Amino acid sequence: MKTKLIVRTDFAAAAQSELTLRFPGIYESHAIDRMGEDIVFGQSDVPGIWRLHAIGRLESWARAGDSVDFRFVDIRPLPESITIVTEGDPESDRHFTPYMIDTLLPEEMAGLLPGKLGLEQALQTPIVTLAEGYGEVIVGSLVGGLHFEAQGKTFFHKVAAAYSQRCAISHMRQSSIDGLAQEGVVIGIDEPFVRHEGAERDGLFLSSSFAFAYRYGLLAIGDDYELLRHQTMEAEMRMFLEIANRKAMLRLPEDPAHWPDLDAARRHRNKFGY
């Protein structure tokens, strides 16, 4: 099953029936690959967390110097906005800025309803969506026939659930005001920049700052689950770690079967000269 593209735009822009958006030229491949497809529009202030509010079709694209213009038609607002969290793009996560374009993976999306489905029927078709990191299911209707399903079986959700959506280093759990989103990044222990399909013991649930530190070797895990700091870690981060975790020990899941794989942790720290 093919992924579904999400494009960042505001509510007012997506309220039009037709819309042209300009993106950096690096997104030209997306335009080529997605011609004629239904695209989801949403807002994103935090990398990977989306509030979906419309669907439209990518009709055409054109080069504009170093940029590329996407033209969307047949834009249909959703009756209700839907919050969903994607697995995200590790390269974009480095900059801590919202993505301009993101994708819903096949396991995050049940797919499109048959094309012959009429608008009235589509409005009556229930959808179920579960944003990664929180435990309530939202049921509603979605114009255009997109159908989302609960994501309990993905790598993200398995690891996040194992840690009860609490950072493995600070043990903090931060929720949005409406309770629909939780802060947290799931990364692989051995290869933190690689998308995983493994078991709970293959990943860590971390807040953004600690995920950054682990990905770039500023933090590592020892053979007794102690937190190791690289000699190049800046003083401010050392102080932050001291406040967040005075014992400098990883906070483990309740189920020992979900405790991090120490062989993988060893391979990770060896890459950074621990």
Defining traits:
alpha+beta, two-stranded antiparallel ribbon, 274 residues, ph1033 like fold, six-stranded mixed beta sheet, 8 helices
Description:
The structure is a single chain. This protein is α+β, with helices and mostly antiparallel strands. 20% of the residues lie in helices and 31% in strands. It folds into two domains: 4-147, ph1033 like fold (Roll); 155-271, no CATH class. A hairpin with a 2-residue loop joins strand 3 and strand 4 (49-64). The longest helix is centred in the last third of the chain and has 10 residues, at 235-244.
Topology:
Elements: E1 4-8, H1 11-14, E2 19-24, H2 28-34, E3 38-46, E4 49-64, E5 67-85, H3 90-93, E6 101-104, E7 111-112, H4 119-123, E8 126-129, E9 138-141, E10 146-147, H5 155-162, E11 185-188, E12 203-206, H6 208-215, E13 219-221, E14 227-229, H7 235-244, H8 262-271
Parallel strand pairs: 1-3
Antiparallel strand pairs: 1-6, 2-5, 3-4, 4-5, 7-10, 8-9, 11-12, 13-14
Give me the number of helical elements. 8
Shape: elongated
Name the quaternary structure: single chain
CATH class of the largest domain: Alpha Beta
